[in-house]
Amino acid sequence: MSSHPPSGEIQSAVRNAPGVPVIKDVNWGGLRTLYIKEVRRFFKVHLQTIWAPAITTLLFLIVFTIATGAKRPVHVGGIDVPFADFIAPGLIISQGMMGPAFANASFSLLAGKIQGTIVDYLMPPLSTLEVLAALLGGAMTRAFLVGFVVWVAMLLYPGVHVTPSHPLAVLWFGFLGALFLSLLGVLTSIWAQKFDHAAAVTNFVVAPLSLLSGTFYSVDRLAPAFRAFSHANPFFYIISGFRYGFLGTADSPVLVGSLVVLGVDVVLFVLCYQLLARGWRLKS
After folding, report:
1. For residue 13, is it within any domain?
2. What is the rounded distance in angstroms from the CA atom of residue 256 to the CA atom of residue 260?
3. What does the pLDDT look like over 143-162, one tens digit per residue?
4. In contact, 185 and 106? CB cutoff 8 Å
5. pLDDT score at 16
6. Where is the ABC transmembrane type-2 domain positioned along the sequence (predicted)?
C-alpha cells in the first residue's frame, strides 16, 4: 500500500500553501463587501454626506440668481441662455457631485492610516484592482446620490430649467467628473499623513479649480490669459460637457473635452493602481 497521499490531496496542499493565491478570479464577494462598507460608512452620517452638500449647492443657486440680481442671459456657443439655466448644471456637477466624490475617496485610506485600521484594506484577499474599484465605486455612488437630490430640487425650483436635452452626455460627463475627483481623492488619501494634508488639497487645489472652471461665467468673456488657463483646467471640460447635456450648447468642443478628461482619468487610474500595489505610504 502506497504511503503517498492521493494526488488530489497533493494538489489541494499546493493550492493552499502560504503565498499561493487561492482565489484566481475576481473576488466578487470581497469586492461587494468592501463596496457596501464604503457606502454604509457615508450613509450612517447622511445628514453630513448627502443632504448638507445638496443644501449648500442650492444656496449657491439662490445667492447667484436672487441675492445678486443676476438677470442678464449668458452667451454660450452662439446663443443666449438664462443665467439660472446656465449655472444650474455647473452647480450640480461641480458642487453636488465632484466635491462629495473627492471628500468620500480622500477619507477612506487616510482614516485607516490615522486610526490604525489600514490593515482592514490590506489584509483581505482582494487584489489591488478590486480595492481600487470598491473605493471608487463608493465615492461615485455618493456623488450620483447627491447630484440626483440636487437635480430633483432644481426641477422644483421656480425659474430654473434643468430638463436634459442630451441625457447620454449628462451621464457620460457626470461619470467622468465623478471618476476624476474620486481618483484624485484616492491619490490624496494615499499621500496624506493627516487630515490637514487632505484639507490642503481641498482648499488649494480642488476648490480653486472648481470655482475658476466657468461654473458661474462663460470663459469666452475672459481675457486671453485667463481663457488659456481655463482651457488647461480639466474641471472646465467636465462642466462644459455636462452643461451641454442640459442646454445643447457648450463653451468648448464636447468631443475634445471628453477625450481630455478621459485621458486624465486613465493617467490618474494607473497612478493610483501603481501606488496601491506598491503600498506607498500605506505599509510603512
Report:
1. no
2. 6
3. 999 999 999 999 998 889 99
4. yes
5. 52
6. 44-279
Q: What percent of the chain has pLDDT over 90?
A: 67
Q: Is the residue at 122 inside a domain? A: yes
The grid cell for 203 is: 482648499
Please compute, for residue 123, the number of CA atoms within 13 A of its CA located in the half-sphere on the CB side. Answer: 6
Query: What pTM, to 2 d.p., does this model score?
Result: 0.89
Give a yes or no: residue 64 inside a domain: yes
The structural domain count of the chain equals 1
Question: Tens of pLDDT along 10-58?
Answer: 444 445 555 455 667 889 999 999 999 999 999 999 999 999 999 999 9
Cα angle 13, 14, 18 (rounded to 5 degrees) comes to 90
Cβ count near 163 (within 10 Å): 9
Report the alpha-carbon angle 196-121-29, nearest 5.
140
Cα 200 from Cα 117, distance rounded (Å)? 23
Q: Are 165 and 192 in contact (CB under 8 A)?
A: no
Cell numbers 485621458 correspond to 263
Whether 2 has a pLDDT exceeding 50, the answer reads no
For the chain, strand residue ranges (E) read 74-76, 79-81
Tell me whether residue 173 is in a domain. Answer: yes
* CA angle 146–233–237, rounded 5-degree value: 60
Contact call for residues 230 and 217 (beta carbons, < 8 A): no
Radius of gyration of the chain (CA): 22
Neighbours of 100 (CB within 10 A): 30
Distances, alpha carbon 231 to alpha carbons 98, 201, 261, in Å: 19, 21, 12
Expressed as residue numbers, the domain containing 181 is: 31-278
